[in-house]
Design goal:
Distance between the termini: 31 Å
Radius of gyration: 17 Å
Number of helices: 4
Structural class: alpha+beta
Largest sheet: 8 strands, antiparallel, barrel
Oligomer: single chain
Number of strands: 9
C-alpha cells in the first residue's frame, strides 16, 4: 500500500481536538519510540533518503478504551515527495512493515550488515479516523519533543498514480481547513530533518 500523507504545525491543540471529536471516530492514544537505522547505499541501491538506506524499529504502547497494548514494529519505507499545484510537496511512501515478538535478532542482523543507529524520535499521539472519498483518512495529533505539536493526515492507496495522489491531497487539505489549520502551516520537512536542524 502507498501512504499519502501531509503534516502541519498545530497552534491551538484544544481547538483541533474539539473539532475532530465532532466529526471523526476517536482511535485512542499511543506512545511511540522510534530508532532509525541507516546504511550507505551503493550505486545500485534505490534510495530517496540522500544516499542511504533507512529502516525503523518502533516500540509502541497504545491505549484504546480500557485496553493497553505494547508492540514492536519494523518498518521499511521507500520515500518520495511529489510537488503539487500549490508548490507544497506531499509524501507518497511505499511502506512495508511487520510486527515483531522481539527485536534483538533483527538489531543484531542490522549491526552485522553495517547499519548504524542514526536517530531516535519520540511521538505522543492521539488518533482519529474520518470518512473520505478514498475510504478513510487516518488523523494523528502528535507531540514530537522538542519540535511541538503537529497534525498528520494519511490516506492509504493501492496505487501511486497522479490522479490518486491529487485526490488524496485535496481530501487531506480539506481536512486541515476543517480543523482550522491554514495550509501555510503545512510542513514539508521530515521529522528527522527538523530534529537534526534543532540539534536534537
Amino acid at each position: 500500500m502507498y501512504e499519502i500523507e501531509l503534516k502541519a504545525h498545530v497552534a491551538d491543540r484544544r481547538h483541533v481536538i474539539e473539532t475532530l471529536n465532532a466529526f471523526a471516530e476517536y482511535d485512542g492514544k499511543a506512545d511511540k519510540k522510534d530508532t532509525y537505522y541507516h546504511l550507505p547505499a551503493d550505486g545500485r541501491a534505490a534510495s530517496d533518503n540522500g544516499g542511504y538506506l533507512s529502516c525503523r524499529i518502533r516500540r509502541e504502547t497504545r491505549e484504546t478504551g480500557n485496553s493497553v497494548r505494547t508492540s514492536v514494529i519494523f518498518t521499511y519505507k521507500r520515500k518520495e515527495q511529489r510537488m503539487g499545484a500549490g508548490g507544497t510537496p506531499i509524501e507518497v511512501n511505499d511502506e512495508r512493515e511487520c510486527t515483531l515478538s522481539d527485536s534483538s535478532a533483527l538489531e543484531a542482523l542490522l549491526a552485522d550488515a553495517g547499519f548504524t543507529v542514526a536517530r531516535t524520535k519520540h511521538k505522543i499521539t492521539e488518533g482519529w479516523y474520518a470518512p473520505a472519498d478514498e475510504g478513510k483518512a487516518h488523523i494523528e495529533l502528535c507531540t514530537v519533543p522538542p519540535l511541538g505539536d503537529f497534525l498528520e493526515i494519511e490516506i492509504l492507496s493501492g496505487t501511486e498514480d497522479e490522479k490518486s495522489v491529487a485526490a488524496a491531497r485535496r481530501c487531506i487539505e480539506g481536512l486541515f481547513v476543517r480543523c482550522g489549520i491554514p495550509l501555510s502551516a503545512v510542513e514539508s520537512r521530515y521529522y528527522n530533518e527538523m530534529l537534526a536542524a534543532a540539534g536534537a
